[in-house]
C-alpha cells in the first residue's frame, strides 16, 4: 500500500473519534427528545387545566344568564300586574294626581 492509500483509509483513532461523535450526537438527541416530551406533557396539562377553567366559566355564565332571565321575566310580570291594576278601575293612568 502506498502513502496516498494509507491517508485515505480511516485510522483506528479517527474511527474511535467518529464513533464518540456519533454517540454524543445520539445522546444529545435522546436528551432533546426527553425534554421535548416533558414540554409537551406540560403543555397538555396546562391546556387541560385551561379547558376545565373555561368549562366552569361557561357553566357560571349560563347560571347567571338564567337568573337574569328570571329577574327580567319577574319585572315584566310586575309591570303587567301594575298596568292591569291601573286599567282595572283605579282611574286613568294618564291623569295627574
What's the arrangement of secondary structure elements?
Blueprint: H1 3-8, H2 12-87
What does this structure look like?
Pfam families: UPF0184 (PF03670). This is GL27121. This protein is mostly helical. The chain has one domain. The protein is built from 2 helices and no strands. The protein is rod-shaped, with a radius of gyration of 40 Å.
Kindly state the percentage of residues in helix: over 70%
Summarize the helix and strand pattern as letters: HH
Give the radius of gyration: 40 Å
Mean pLDDT: 85
* Intertermini distance: 127 Å
Count the E strands.
Answer: 0
- What is the number of helices? 2
Total number of domains: 1
β-strand percent reads: under 5%
Helix/sheet category: mainly alpha
Low-confidence stretches: none
Shape: rod-shaped
Main pleated sheet: none
Gist of the model:
With 97 residues, the chain is mainly α. It has two helices and no strands.
Keyphrases for this structure?
mainly alpha
